[in-house]
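Sample entry (315 residues):
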Amino acid sequence: MSAPPAASERPPAPAKPPRRPGDVVFSGLSTASAFSILLILAGVAIFLISKALPVFGADPAEVTGGEGFLSYVWPLVFGTLVASLIAMLVATPVAVGIALFVSHYAPKRLGTAVGFVIDLLAAVPSVVFGMWGFQVFAPKLVPLFGWLEEHLGFLPFFESASRTGRTLLTASLVLAVMILPIVTSVSREVFLQTPRLHEEAALALGATQWEMIRTAVLPFGRPGVIGGTMLGLGRALGETMAVAIILSPGVFTWNLIDTGNTTVPAEIALNFPEAAGLRLSELIAAGLVLFGITLAVNLAARAVVERRAEFSGAN
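Predicted structure, serialized as tokens:
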């Protein structure tokens, strides 16, 4: 048996093939695109901060409301967060149910048709949702608000009911309809990616259809559902026209079924065209607060998804 060759006698390692010009160009464009996102985000943040600075150093009596910027903006933040959270709580279970029906229960033709309708719902302009909510949906909710006032009026959220239906709860439900296609589409695609072997293994062990979904499909799709929900929440946080059309701007109140309350995007949309001076800085500062909230929501969603990253259909 011959001895192994000495290190000096071993063949040299094969040289790396030269990079093609197309690869170099594509790599450069990809890198530039990635850094451009960071630059755009930084540019937006710098613009908002620079334009909002005057309101932070202004006399509180000169700010809208006469009690300083914090007193002015926190009711708007409250309306934005409450409307978005209600929309997410209403839309997410419905969206997950629709996604499961399309991916695991419906016949292929019916599932395709339902999926097409859901995707088509995402193409409806927000102003159309706003007009529908104002003209059709809000009047239909008046009897429900009356029932809530009669039976749950001891709670501060349902003390008195609006006779027009143009309330924060109405806007929240319209937002739920608007974010439904986003959460449904993402959840449906994630559920369809569940490894077939996992599903067949669960069924082979005697699991029912629901038990198979609960033990194989939902755990696999949880990160995608969370990501889709956060996308929908981001849409709800930034929605402007639908909320501006439905709500009548008013004073802050804990009551969800009476007039009053508005959101940061609606406040900016309704007042920005005529704003000037310190009032313009107020609105830009409110936009800065909304920018920070949206950024925090996305970072939290990314942290939740990354915590589930170790789960994969292959392990």
